[in-house]
Design brief:
This protein is of the alpha+beta class and 160 residues long. The protein is 21% helix and 36% strand. The chain is built from three helices and eight strands. The strands form two sheets. Strands 1, 4, 5, 6 and 7 form a five-stranded mixed β-sheet that branches. Strands 3-2-8 form a three-stranded antiparallel β-sheet. The termini are far apart.
């Protein structure tokens, strides 16, 4: 799907200025403990699946929707892995600037066959944790947190 329609509408009047947006990401595991990854069409990098919730959409529902839209895999959320605001804004090739607050969920695959299901991915696949392709720290950290039994991670260094 790419950029949601509601953001296109905002951009029509806001131009390229910085927007603070919600995001969701999903670490999807199958019964063999493999991780579902997609190779992104915009960067060519492998990553976990993610996207932007629609207005009024709950983060868990958005994660489930994004996983299905991008990979054709059905999943159910198990727990919140982390909540994090990205330290730096992202500037896209067209000049749009965004800063995201990500809610990452660990999800369990319950059906479907992994495949490229929209224009956002070049490839989709299942990877064992000990044979992951090259990933950015964003994805590696979320996978690590999803595989741990620790509590939801958040940055506890906030100041008053």
């Amino acid at each position: 799907m790419g950029t949601p329609d509601f953001i296109r509408e905002i951009r029509a009047t806001a131009g390229h200025q910085l927007l603070f947006l919600p995001g969701v990401s999903a670490v999807v595991l199958d019964d063999d403990g493999r991780v579902l990854l997609g190779r992104r069409a915009d960067t060519g990098n492998w990553s976990i699946i993610g996207g932007i919730p629609e207005p009024g959409e709950q983060p868990a529902a958005a994660a489930v929707r994004e996983v299905y839209e991008e990979t054709a895999v059905r999943c159910v959320p198990e727990r919140i892995v982390l909540v994090e605001t990205f330290a730096k804004p992202v500037t896209y090739p067209n000049g749009d600037q965004c800063q995201f607050m990500d809610v990452c969920l660990r999800c369990r695959a319950v059906g479907g066959e992994a495949r490229v299901n929209d224009e956002e991915s070049l490839e989709v696949g299942w990877f064992s944790v000990d044979a992951l392709p090259e990933l950015q720290e964003f994805a590696l950290f979320r996978i690590k947190q999803a595989l741990s039994d620790g509590p939801t991670w958040f940055d506890s260094t906030a100041t008053d």
